[in-house]
Write a structure and sequence with these properties.
about 35% strand; four-stranded antiparallel sheet
Length: about 260
């Protein structure tokens, strides 16, 4: 190899090391993330706080939670009064494997509910899930409505609806949801939505594929979990401090959809 080719080769190796070092967090970050509602538009990790709080003391146990099931022929969803969230969702026309004995079951055997709400624990300043009891106020074959309160008295109304499959343009494997927050005081409580959790991909030691996705009809935002961990970068280049929350969109810009991903 002549001097010119050697220089180019070393340069390419250095560039590759830089890209890897910048994208790789120093320590693994938590898999559970939450996307904030329309007014705040951000992503943040949900971490269980070590200290006792009012949130944990008022939580309804999984055993005591009341279940409600709705389906539209394509999607069968089990809701729980524990936070008024989703316990599991079964894709009725999508087999889990080639044996076709079972269907795909989202959030199976997971104690954390999908679409759980979260609020900031004032003691630890971390987001904790809301698992207090929500009352089922109405239900039909394809919709449910829950109501509950936060510790500060804020009233929460949660509505979920499955689309009608025969309707033109309807996506049968989707859940429309609405969360109404009625503040008890002059300053409203910041309420977060969990987009669900993922296991780390085997072999992905950097956990670079776990992320939060959000779409507002014009832009698609992809937030990797590396922003929630300190990184020294490559000789200082690309170094950053861990963020407690990361803005996804400008405030008051509505979401078309939000999700967690691992790909």
């Amino acid at each position: 190899m002549d001097r010119k080719n050697l220089f180019l080769g070393v340069g390419c190796i250095a560039a590759a090391m830089f890209i890897f070092a910048v994208s790789k967090p120093n320590t693994p970050a938590p898999t559970a993330t939450a996307a904030k509602p329309v007014a705040t538009a951000a992503a943040a990790p949900v971490v269980s706080a070590p200290a006792a709080s009012n949130l944990s003391s008022s939580a309804q146990s999984i055993a005591d939670a009341q279940k409600t099931v709705i389906d539209n022929g394509y999607l069968k969803v089990t809701f729980t009064s524990r936070g008024g969230a989703i316990e599991k969702a079964e894709l009725l026309k999508q087999p889990a494997d080639l044996s076709k004995k079972e269907n795909i079951l989202f959030n199976a055997t997971n104690e954390d509910s999908a679409m759980a709400l979260g609020v900031t624990n004032r003691v630890t300043n971390r987001v904790e899930p809301v698992y207090s009891e929500f009352k089922l106020v109405s239900s039909s074959a394809t919709s449910v409505v829950y109501q509950g309160k936060l510790e500060d008295g804020t009233k929460i109304t949660r509505t979920y609806t499955l689309p009608v499959p025969d309707k033109e343009g309807a996506e049968p494997y989707s859940i429309r949801f609405q969360t109404k927050v009625e503040a008890s005081g002059a300053v409203p409580t910041r309420v977060w939505h969990s987009t669900g959790t993922w296991h780390y991909t085997q072999g992905d030691v950097a956990h670079q594929f776990v992320s939060v996705l959000a779409d507002n009809g014009e832009d698609l935002t992809h937030v990797g979990i590396s922003v929630f961990s300190d990184s020294s970068g490559f000789f200082g280049l690309g170094a950053h401090r861990a963020e407690s929350e990361h803005k996804a969109f400008a405030a008051n810009k509505p979401f078309n959809w939000v999700s967690s991903g691992n790909q």
